[in-house]
Write a structure and sequence with these properties.
Layout: E1 17-21, H1 23-29, H2 39-48, E2 53-56, H3 67-77, E3 84-89, H4 95-105, E4 111-114, H5 134-146, E5 150-155, H6 162-167, E6 172-176, H7 178-185, H8 193-205, E7 209-213, H9 221-227, E8 231-236, H10 238-247, H11 249-263
Parallel strand pairs: 1-2, 1-8, 2-3, 3-4, 4-5, 5-6, 6-7, 7-8
């Protein structure tokens, strides 16, 4: 299946896919040398509950996802051909080494999300800026696509940047949603949603697919999807794993899927 031609989620066309980011499971595991909680078990339970994919963000310092996790999860994803494996990170750090090696081994790597984070950042906090980042990104986008891997660019809600993203031959953009999450929590979502909707419309006009992620949760997800057209995938980690501590993986994933279905 060529991920540049299909989402790999044909049975779910018309609905937003849920990709579960398991970084925080790894972060907790790494505090002790016991191997628990298991990243593989978390991913398996999420997929069994109906998640459409798994996301990891392996940083160079291995503060959470470690090198072996990337490969063990790729092997697990072979058992779930209807689901997708999304690897995100800075393409100028260690990300492309993983992509090249996974493809060379014949292991799944359906989508790569390029994120402009620094080594020191605790989490991603901004998108790519054009034309500043364009020249450096172009050859890596071309390389990933030549390997048969879909490329998504982590972007702020800036409608004017969508044409530049498409000119670089990106397949999708992932809208960075922290500003929305903060506004929603303050009861001010209406002040920021128009920018996200306008960016989504601009992306669709350029033929770009749309993903979204960062601080989305059960309280704000439905409202976001109702307001922003064409979102094909949301990647959710911190809030989902926090919810799973109380509800368990299975019920948590099902609840997020209910939020997605409520928006549809």
């Amino acid at each position: 299946m060529n991920p540049l031609l299909t989402t790999g989620l044909d049975a779910h066309r018309g609905a937003t896919a849920l990709s579960v980011n398991v970084n925080k499971v790894a972060l907790l595991r790494n505090t002790r040398d016991l191997g628990i909680p298991s990243v593989l078990r978390a991913a398996t339970l999420a997929l069994e509950a109906g998640a459409h994919g798994i996301t990891v963000h392996p940083r160079p310092d291995e503060r959470h996802i470690r090198r072996h996790d990337v490969y063990e999860l790729a092997e697990l994803m072979q058992q779930w051909p209807q689901a997708e494996y999304n690897i995100e990170g800075n393409p100028f750090h260690n990300l492309m080494d993983f992509v090249r090696d996974l493809v060379a081994r014949g292991l799944p790597c359906h989508q790569v999300t390029f994120v402009p984070d620094s080594v020191e950042q605790s989490t991603s906090d901004h998108g790519w800026q054009f034309p500043h980042d364009a020249e450096r990104l172009a050859p890596l986008i071309d390389e990933a696509r030549a390997l048969g891997v879909r490329v998504s660019l982590f972007m702020d809600p800036q409608p004017e940047a969508m044409a530049a993203a498409r000119a670089l031959r990106a397949d999708r953009v992932e809208l960075y949603t922290e500003t929305y999450a903060r506004a929603h929590l303050a009861g001010e979502a209406a002040s920021v949603l128009p920018a996200f909707a306008a960016t989504a419309h601009a992306a669709l006009r350029e033929g770009l697919g749309i993903n979204a992620g960062h601080d989305l949760n059960r309280d704000n997800l439905t409202d976001f999807l109702r307001a922003v057209p064409g979102v094909q995938e949301v990647s959710i980690g911190h809030a989902l794993i926090a919810d799973a501590l109380e509800l368990g993986y299975t019920e948590t994933v099902r609840d997020y899927l209910r939020c997605i279905h409520a928006a549809a």
